[in-house]
Amino acid sequence: MITDERMGILWAGRAIAIVACALVVAGWPAARAGEDQEPARHTVKRYEIGQGPRSYWLFEPDAPRPERAGVVVFLHGWFAVNPAFYGAWIDHLVRAGHVVIFPRYQNDVGTLPQDFLPNALAAVRDGLGVLSGGVGHVRPEPGRFALVGHSAGGNLAAQIAAASADPNAEIPVPRALIALMPGEVLPMRKPSLDQIAPTTLMLVVVGEEDLVVGDLRARRIFEEAVAVPRTHKRFVLFRSDRHGYPPMVAEHTAPTGVNHQLDNGEGLFRSLQMSFGDVNALDKAGFWKMTDMTLDAAFAGRSMYDATRDLEKFRHLGFWSDGRRVTPPLVGDDLAAIPRVIPANGIKLFPWNTPGRPRVAAVPIERPATK
Question: In 3-state terms, what secondary structure has residue 209?
Fold first, then answer.
């Protein structure tokens, strides 16, 4: 049995080793992202359920297995159907105690973009049913349901949040919506994003070097969710920092992180995608930490104002080995104050005619007084 004193010695030794590595590796961030987080509390149990575009992966915390847990739906990018592509982040979420549903929603090039939403909704409904009624599964915790999506999955997450307002959708209203580098494969204006519930916390994230989708769709999602008060949503612009090695580049695939143990061999661009999945400070101290803080606030019934009250902690990515701070992201609720990503709509693989910018009515929200 390891005593508290012994555990303290082990952690102290680990901290010294980390600092030593930072000193000898030129340019590596000295404050290694994620090292100050609590140790993982669970192992991961996984299931693959169904076949085709309405199938999904189910990841549950185990050993110890909680009786109930919050559910996070993780929505992949276009053709990134292999869970290994996001496996490091999925592993982080589950080990922290969340159940993750990973809808496939897209089978191959024959799956039409207009089918993404009904496919994903079907997978989420089935996953929640398996969790609620299946033998040996972790039961969903009422009021702890959230959506996380990247690229086409970020756009899909916003659509699912809006669709949840319809009782016929038969899914819970999400407490949190985290859309990272959201983009549209084909523009669709239904369901209307003004249906996203005012109780949902929104975190919309873009990268300054995202040449794939830019920031146009992200800004429209943020603006069109008019029912969500400003106290409940934040827009984040990640910035690149090439001061040292490895460079922190805020490009489209930055939120990915490979876990080869989850590789199911699928994916039209599997080899290319797997080569992009390095895990660095942008992941652990950026996307993961911001999502963790948003989920904590959402599941506790608090606001994004509360989640970002300590803005320094929310934005901090660590330091390079020479003491220079890694360039932090810009965070705010006023889009006019956040620089644009150029090109705003990315370098489109398939051209289409986008409708004119929608007119969005401003909803005056009184900000809480700063304490």
Answer: coil
pLDDT score of 28? 36
Q: Structural domain tally of the chain? A: 1
Does residue 294 lie within any of the structural domains?
Answer: yes
**Distances, alpha carbon 158 to alpha carbons 98, 129, 174, 264, 312, in Å:** 20, 22, 10, 27, 27
Using DSSP's 3-state secondary structure scheme, residue 236 falls into strand
pLDDT higher than threshold 60 for residue 353: no
- Cα torsion 140, 146, 148, 152 to 10°: value is 100
* 3-state percent breakdown (helix, strand, coil) of the chain, nearest 5: 35, 20, 50
Residues 45 and 97: beta-carbon distance below 8 Å = no
Question: Where do the H-state alpha helices sit in 183-233?
Answer: 216-224
CATH code of the domain in which 207 resides: 3.40.50.1820
Task: Tell which wins on pLDDT, 14 or 227.
Answer: 227
- Alpha-carbon distance of 21 to 19, in angstroms, equals 5
Cα–Cα distances (Å) from 23 to 10, 15, 16, 244, 323, in that order, read 20, 13, 11, 13, 10
Structural domain for 252, as ranges: 10-337
Count of residues making up the chain: 371
338-362 CB burial, b ≥16 within 10 A, e <16 = beebeeeebeeeeeeeeeeeeeeee
15 pLDDT exceeds 50?
no
CA angle 213, 214, 220 (to 5 degrees): 90
CA nearest to 274, candidates 85, 83, 41: 85
Provide the 10 A C-beta neighbour count for residue 41. Answer: 13
Report the predicted TM-score, pTM, of the whole model to 2 decimal places.
Answer: 0.83
Within a domain: 90: yes
Residue 283 lies in a domain: yes
Give domain status of residue 132, yes or no: yes
Give per-residue burial for 232-243: e unless 16+ CB within 10 Å, then b.
bbbbbbbbbbeb
Location of structure tokens 């508290």: 4
Q: How far is CA 260 from CA 70, 86, 95, 324, in A?
A: 25, 10, 17, 33
